[in-house]
Design a protein that fits this description.
This protein is an alpha/beta fold. The protein is built from 19 helices and ten strands. The chain folds into three domains: 162 residues, 2-Layer Sandwich (Beta Polymerase, domain 2); 153 residues, NAD(P)-binding Rossmann-like Domain (Rossmann fold); 98 residues. α7 crosses α16, α16 runs parallel beside α18 and α16 packs across α19. It starts with a strand and ends with a helix.
Length: 437
């Protein structure tokens, strides 16, 4: 049984999502270790959502409730957020609804900005992390692999990717009202990860040329050399920040990396240390824009109280997210629903396969006995054997088709029960026979 516990910008406060985004890497192993009933777990934690995908032992009574409890306890243990604080901030999907939800998430349909592309990579990385931790299961592997396939199909056959915009692009569109000439901006980019690369490309699209980069983790030089921009050393960070007119932060740091202390330097000191290529006029009192794309926050909210400084963070960006382009979204959701239905049908057929194998094994065993008897009676030309094999194939065809139909309708257990009632056989017996053969 598949289960998804999800908290997103649709159900939880920005402050709670920020705390959940600090979720340690050991949450999935913790979930798996909570109870033997959990077969596997994959955790997807992004700036606007926290989701735990869990496979529970199918025959277990109340598997859903046990799975949710395991997730909540694991989150509480890892983050210190009380379970009572999570009440009402998450929703639960189970069974066939899980696939459609994940496929929608991977395709960007559940993002702040419909169609944003960063989430697809985050979904892939979530599975990769679970593999590394050994917490995946065959069904979770299939689920996440099919999610990536669904996302690619949505991208290829609908206009959602072209209509949707990333958070980075939306943030810079909101900044347009404050920036008359992008080429005149002194830009400081704080961060060197995937978001930083997207941000840099988007800045250049808008005409920005004076761009520096600082990395709290010390990777500025490598990033700068790769992208042809100016690196900022740690001892230059505050001076560069004070002289920048546009600052964009997008790091994975768990504490703020930009505060009032970086933007309030004495004018004389700031001018003396002004980086090469920058204006010698202090930017301390001019209008400046700080864009915080970090989750948790990269910027101390106190910077917004500084004279001449405007702060644009994810919470503000979310409030300005555009209305979905209905036609593109509807087409994408149709693709997602079709992919989810296919996932369910294939999974159902796989679940009934042991029962079909048990029936075929039973019939073939009877067949071989009758063929041996026919040979003992002198079936020298093999015509009786041929007729018997043909008859067994005809007899098996309808039950096999019917088994798959029942499975697709969620009634695979009826086929298994019929086998037990009519023939006294069970899938487990067939599996045991195969293992000892």
């Amino acid at each position: 049984m598949l289960l998804c516990v999800t908290a997103s910008h649709k159900t939880a406060s920005f402050e709670l999502l920020e705390r959940l985004s600090r979720t340690p890497d050991d949450v999935a192993p913790t979930i798996v270790g909570m109870t033997p009933c959990v077969q596997g777990a994959v955790v997807l934690a992004t700036c606007n959502r926290f989701e735990a995908y869990v496979e529970m032992e199918e025959p277990l009574t109340a598997a859903g409730a046990i799975g949710v409890e395991a997730v909540i306890e694991a989150v509480e243990s890892a983050t210190g957020i009380p379970a009572t604080e999570l009440d009402g901030a998450y929703t639960v999907h189970s069974g066939r609804r899980v696939a459609e939800h994940l496929f929608s998430v991977a395709s960007g349909l559940e993002s702040v900005v419909s169609g944003e592309g960063e989430i697809a990579g985050q979904v892939r990385r979530a599975l990769k992390s679970a593999r590394k931790d050994g917490t995946t299961s065959p069904e979770l592997e299939r689920l996440f692999q099919r999610a990536s396939q669904a996302q690619r199909k949505v991208k290829n056959v609908t206009a959602l990717g072209r209509a949707g915009r990333s958070l980075v692009r939306l943030a810079l569109e909101l900044a347009d009202s404050r920036i008359a000439d992008w080429s005149a901006e002194r830009v400081l980019l704080v961060g060197t990860g995937a978001y930083a690369a997207v941000t840099l490309a988007t800045l250049r699209e808008r005409g920005a040329v004076d761009i520096s980069v600082y990395s709290p983790s010390g990777r500025a030089a490598v990033f700068a050399a790769k992208h042809g921009i100016r690196p900022v050393a740690a001892d230059e960070y505050a001076r560069t920040a004070a002289h920048s007119s546009l600052l964009i932060t997008c790091t994975t740091a768990t504490e703020p990396v930009l505060g009032p202390e970086h933007l309030q330097l004495p004018v004389g000191i700031a001018a003396a240390g002004c980086p090469v290529g920058a204006s010698t006029g202090s930017a301390t009192h001019s209008n400046r824009l700080v864009v915080d794309l970090g989750m948790p926050r990269n910027v101390d909210p106190a910077v917004a109280s500084l004279e001449g400084v405007a702060l644009l963070d994810l919470e503000t960006i979310r409030l300005h997210a555009p209305l979905e382009e209905l036609q593109a979204t509807d087409a994408a959701r149709s693709v997602v629903r079709e992919a989810a239905e296919t996932f369910h049908v294939v999974g159902s057929r796989q679940s009934v396969t042991p029962s079909v194998v048990a029936l075929r094994s039973h019939i073939f065993e009877l067949l071989e006995r009758e063929i041996d008897r026919a040979r003992a009676r002198g079936d020298e030309d093999g015509k009786v054997e041929q007729a018997l094999r043909h008859l067994s194939g005809v007899l098996l065809h309808t039950p096999t088709v019917r088994a798959h139909e029942l499975a697709a309708a969620g009634r695979a257990d009826e086929f298994t029960a019929a086998l037990a009632a009519l023939y006294g056989i069970a899938p487990e017996a067939a599996a045991d026979d195969a293992a000892t053969a």
